[in-house]
Inverse folding.
């Protein structure tokens, strides 16, 4: 039983508004954070050994087949960073791209974290639909950011070895 009783129709309206406001708000707050906040990995963004420099995502979810279909909102706010293409192949440009993959990953984790709040005004079945939506809308983006970062880190490491 939800704490805030709404008809199913009103619950869906509230759901749409909450997702839109929450996603945009989190995106804006993360956009405003300095680059230095994302210049290192955290527990959440650290690449794991099972990811095998991104090859895990290639083998298990065939990411190369669908990642280009995902929306890109990195440049939604003025001064943002479009991650659909590289902005150069020099180390500084690649490092900046790595930073922006972390920013995007953290953004999607925070957006996804809102899913449990939907039990407050939704019947159980609609809260489950909202949780499913949160997973479907965010997990492919999370995987893509991790995949791209793994590939970029591999390229940067290879170039550093060659120049040393």
């Amino acid at each position: 039983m939800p704490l805030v009783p709404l008809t199913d129709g009103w619950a869906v309206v509230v759901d749409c508004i909450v997702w839109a406001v929450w996603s945009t708000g989190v995106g804006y707050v993360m956009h405003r954070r300095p680059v230095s906040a994302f210049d290192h990995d955290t527990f959440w963004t650290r690449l794991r050994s099972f990811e095998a420099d991104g090859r895990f995502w290639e083998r298990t979810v065939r990411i190369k087949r669908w990642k280009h279909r995902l929306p890109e909102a990195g440049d939604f706010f003025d001064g943002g960073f479009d991650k659909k293409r590289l902005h150069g192949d020099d180390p500084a440009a690649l490092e900046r791209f790595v930073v922006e993959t972390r920013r995007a990953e953290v953004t999607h984790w925070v957006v996804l974290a809102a899913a449990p709040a939907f039990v407050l005004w939704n019947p159980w079945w609609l809260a489950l639909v909202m949780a499913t939506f949160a997973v479907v809308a965010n997990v492919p983006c999370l995987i893509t950011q991790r995949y791209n970062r793994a590939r970029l880190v591999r390229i940067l490491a290879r170039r550093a070895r060659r120049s040393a």
